Amino acid sequence: MPYNLCFGTEAVIPIDIGVPSHRVQTFDSNTNDEKLRNNLDLLPEVRDETMLNIEAAGKGPQQNKLSPLWEGPYLVAAMVKPGTFKLKDAEGKMLPRTWNIDNLRKYYQ
């Protein structure tokens, strides 16, 4: 979670403080400090895992909400079967997989 990455601990909402929960009742500052040190030791691994998750969930070249949701333009290199195509980029490099026509859009210059 972003809060955990920034502050190294889980967020406690105000209702948890006002109405005692199991988490608040069993809080021990000594063990908390030890767990925080352990979490700090594991921080590089957590950051690496987070970066992998971001890469896997990415939408290609999209950098922000105003960026286009597509890549390209690409040229149709070959029709594998009706509705399925092999594409190549502007330099002529073939893309590694086939594309269904539902995922393609016409590009007008």
Major sheet characteristics: 3 strands, antiparallel
Oligomer: single chain
Strand order of the largest sheet: 1-2-3
User: What count of helical segments does DSSP give?
Assistant: 5
Please report the total strand number as a whole number. 3
Level of helix content? Answer: 25-40%
- Report the portion of residues in β strands: 15-25%
Give the C-alpha Rg.
Answer: 24 Å
Taken in chain order, the helices and strands follow as HHHHHEEE
Protein name: Reverse transcriptase domain-containing protein
Organism: Dendrobium catenatum
How are the secondary structure elements laid out?
Layout: H1 2-7, H2 14-18, H3 22-25, H4 29-41, H5 43-57, E1 75-81, E2 84-88, E3 94-100
Antiparallel strand pairs: 1-2, 2-3
Structure summary:
By secondary structure, the chain is α+β, with helices and mostly antiparallel strands. Helices cover 39% and strands 17% of the residues.
